[in-house]
Amino acid sequence: MIAAIGELSMMVRRCPVTFKPFRIFVAGVGFFSLCFLMTSLGGQFLAKRPGDSPFTMRAEVLGGQESRGVLRKISDMLEMIMKRMDALSKLGNTSDTHRLDELSSALDRIQPMGLVERIQAIAQNMSDMAVRVEQILQRSMASSRVREGAFGLCETPKDPRYPDCTSKMDWMRARWTSDPCYAFYGVDGSDCSFLIYLSEVEWFCPPLTWRNRTSPPTQQTQQAKSPKRQAAFRTDLSVLLEQVGSGKESLSFMKRRIRRLAQQWATAANHLDLKLGQRWRDQKKILVHVGFLTEESGDVFSPKVLKGGPLGEMVQWADILTALHVLGHNLKISMSVKELQGFLGVPPGRGSCPLTGPLPFDLIYTDYHGLQQMKQHMGLSLKKHKCHIRVIDTFGTEPAYNHEEYATLHGYRTNWGYWNLIPRQYMTMFPHTPDNSFMGFVAEELNETERLFIQRDKVNNMAVVYGKDASMWKLQGKENVLAILYRYMEIHGTVYYETQRPPEVPAFVKNHGLLPQQELQQLLRKAKLFVGFGFPYEGPAPLEAIANGCIFLQPKFNPPHSSLNHEFFRGKPTSRKVSSQHPYAEQHIGRPHVITVDFNNSEEFEATIREIMKLNVEPFLPYEYTCEGMLERVHTYIQNQSFCSPEVPFPPVNSSWALLRGPFTPVPDSRILIWASNVSSLSSWPPLSALRLLSSQQGQSCVEACWTEGLICEPAFYRFINIKEAFSALDFQCEGLESGMNHLFPAFSAEHAECSLQHDPLLFSCAGSSSKYQRLCPCRDFRKGQVALCMDCL
C-alpha cells in the first residue's frame, strides 16, 4: 500500500499539463489510500514504534478507542481536501497546475521509514493545507473570469435577432437563485453560465460559437429521425384498465364504465376498420393528464361519486381514454402532478426552467386544471409546446375569451380563458361551440333483442325525474308541475339520501335512491318519460334516456340563460345563450324524442303531458354518440388536425383571379357561395370543397347564420374568406377597407359602408353578434349524424 502511494506520486508528477484532471484524480487516489491506511492500521502500527515520539506515547496512553478518534478526525480533514480538489479539477486553468505539485510533493515525501512522523506532520498542518487549497481555488476562479472577460467570451452579445438577451442576462444576475432548476442546468452565478443557459437551455441569446456545440434536437427533428409507426385497432382493454389505476372512487367508476362498454367498443373498432380499409394511420404518442382528479386540484368529484355528485366529466374522460386506446395509440395516463412531471421530464425546482429534453409526446389531452398545472411546472416549455395540447372543456371557450390581450381590454377576461390557444384546441362535450372541436362521449347502444324487450315492457304512465341530488328538485314552481304530472303518471326519482328521505322530494314520488348504472338503465327502459327540472345543464343522462326509449321533457328558458343573467354561467369563457336545459337535444334531436316547453305555463305543460301519453317512440341514439361515431371523429381529428405547422399564407403571392368575386362562385338560386373548382387547390382541413360562404343578418352570429341554412360554421375556413374579394362576392359596396382586432371581423358596417378584415387569426370567431355588423361567415356541410365532420372529411 505504501509503495503504491509513492508510485502514485510519481505518476502525478509525470502527467503532462493537458491531463491535469487525471493528475488530480491520481493525487486524490493517493490521499484516499493514505486515509485508508491510517484508519485501518493506525492503532496497531503505532504500537510497534519506539516510545520516544510524543504522538506515539499519546496513542499508547489513550488507548485504541481514542487513537482511532484522532485518526478519524484526520480522515475527515483529508476528505474535505478531496472535495476542494474535486472543485479545483473542474477549472480549465492550466496556469495553476504547478500549485498541484505542492499537493503531490506531500505524497513523494511519504516513505516507509519515518511514516509516523510524516503522518504527524500532515496532521499538524492539515488545516493550513485546507486553507491553501481554498485560496488556490478562489484565485483560479478569479483569474478564469478575468481571462474570459479579456477574450470577450462572456460579454452579452448584441444581436437584433435576440432582442431580449440583455434584459434576460440582467434578470439572471438578480434572480438565478430563485429556483433550484437553474443550478440543475449548470448556472453558478457567472456570466458565462448565464449565457450558456440562455442560449442552450432557453432561446433568448444567440448560440455561443466558442462552445462548439450542436443545437439540441427539436420536436420536429426528433420526429423526423424516429420512424412512423402504423396504429392498429385494439379490442383488449386490460392494459388500459391497469393504466387507469385505483385508489379513488372516481377511477373505480371509470373502470366499471370501460368494462361495461368493452364489447360495444370492440364491435365499433371492427366496423371502423372495415370502413377505413387499408388506410395508413399514424400511431401517436399521447399523454392524458386528468387534472380535475389530481389531489393538487382539490378533487371534489371523487368523494361525491356515491353521493349523487356529477359524473358527466368522468363519463367523458373514461370514453376518451378508451377511444385513444382502441384506436391503437401509445398512451400514457397521469392522475397526479408527480406523474405529470415524470412523463414530461420536468427539471427539479419550482417550474421556472424548460423541460430537460424535447417533448416526448405528439399530443397531450388535459383539462383547465391540468393546463394550469402544466403552466406551473413546464416554464417556457408550455409556450413552446402548447400547439400539442388539447383541452377537454365541457362548456366551451369562445375566441374573445381565449385571446388574453383582447379579453383584458374588452371585458371578456374570466378565471378560465385567456390561454391564447387556437380555439379548435378546446374540445367540448356537445357540439354547441363550432369555434371549438367537438369531442363528445358515448351512450350505450341497444341490440335488436333489447329494443324488442323495451317495446314490450314500456309502462305508458311511468315517468322518471332527472336529478340525483336533492338540490336539483328546488325548481321554482315544481310543486305545480309535479302535481299536474302526477294526475297522469306514476313518478319515480333517483335522489341520493343516507338515512332520511330528502324533504325536497314530495311524498307521492317513488324514490329509489342513488342507483348503480345497470339498475338505472333498467328503470329507464320501463319508463316512458324522462323529466328535467332545468338543472344540470347538458349532461349525458338525457341521451341515455332517449337511447332507452324515453321521451325527454325539458323546460324552455325565457330569456335564455347566459353569463349575463345566470350565476352558473358567470365566469365561464362563453357568451353562449342556453335556450333550454339541453340545447343539443332540443336542436339536434327534437320531436318526438325531445319536447321543450314553458314549465311556467300550466296549460301548455298539461297539454304536452296529454300529447306524450298518446306518443309511441323507439329508442334513438345519434350516430355521433355511439362508440363507432366517437372513434370515427377522434381518429379524424388525430390524423388531420395540426396546429404546430405554420399555415400557408392566403391569398398566395401572384394569385390572379379573373373575377372580382375572387375564388368564390355562386350556387344557383341561393345566396350561398362555394369555392370555385378552377382555383388551384390549397392544403386545408376540412377540404375547401366543403366551404360555403354567406353573410349574416345584422345582430346575428355566424353560428346562427350557418345553422339557418342547414350548415355548420367552420372557423378553419376564416383565413380563406378574410379577403376584400369576399365582400365583392357577397355584393357589399365597400367605401372603406380596414383591418382590426375585433372578434366580429370580417364584417360589413352598413351605417358607414365600411368593410373590416380580421387582423389577428386568434380572433376568428363563429360566436358573437352586433346590430352594427353583417358578418362574413364560413360555413360547411356535415355528415348525417356527425356534425363534426364534413361530407369529404373522412
UniProtKB/TrEMBL annotation:
Catalytic reactions on record: N(4)-{beta-D-GlcNAc-(1->2)-[beta-D-GlcNAc-(1->4)]-alpha-D-Man-(1->3)-[beta-D-GlcNAc-(1->2)-alpha-D-Man-(1->6)]-beta-D-Man-(1->4)-beta-D-GlcNAc-(1->4)-beta-D-GlcNAc}-L-asparaginyl-[protein] + UDP-N-acetyl-alpha-D-glucosamine = N(4)-{beta-D-GlcNAc-(1->2)-[beta-D-GlcNAc-(1->4)]-alpha-D-Man-(1->3)-[beta-D-GlcNAc-(1->2)-[beta-D-GlcNAc-(1->6)]-alpha-D-Man-(1->6)]-beta-D-Man-(1->4)-beta-D-GlcNAc-(1->4)-beta-D-GlcNAc}-L-asparaginyl-[protein] + UDP + H(+)
A GO biological process held by the record: protein N-linked glycosylation
TM segment ranges: 21-47
GO molecular function: alpha-1,6-mannosylglycoprotein 6-beta-N-acetylglucosaminyltransferase activity
Subcellular location: Golgi apparatus membrane
Pfam families from the UniProt entry: Glyco_transf_18
GO cellular component: Golgi membrane
EC number(s) reported in the record: 2.4.1.155
Occurrences of domain Glycosyltransferase family 18 catalytic (ranges): 181-779
Its membrane topology: Single-pass type II membrane protein
InterPro entries on file: GT18_cat, MGAT5_Glycosyltransferase
Protein's pathway: Protein modification; protein glycosylation
Keyword vocabulary terms for this entry: Glycoprotein, Glycosyltransferase, Golgi apparatus, Membrane, Signal-anchor, Transferase, Transmembrane, Transmembrane helix
PANTHER family membership: ALPHA-1,6-MANNOSYLGLYCOPROTEIN 6-BETA-N-ACETYLGLUCOSAMINYLTRANSFERASE B (PTHR15075:SF6), ALPHA-MANNOSIDE BETA-1,6-N-ACETYLGLUCOSAMINYLTRANSFERASE (PTHR15075)
Sequence similarity: Belongs to the glycosyltransferase 18 family.
Protein name: alpha-1,6-mannosyl-glycoprotein 6-beta-N-acetylglucosaminyltransferase
Gene source species: Nothobranchius rachovii (bluefin notho)
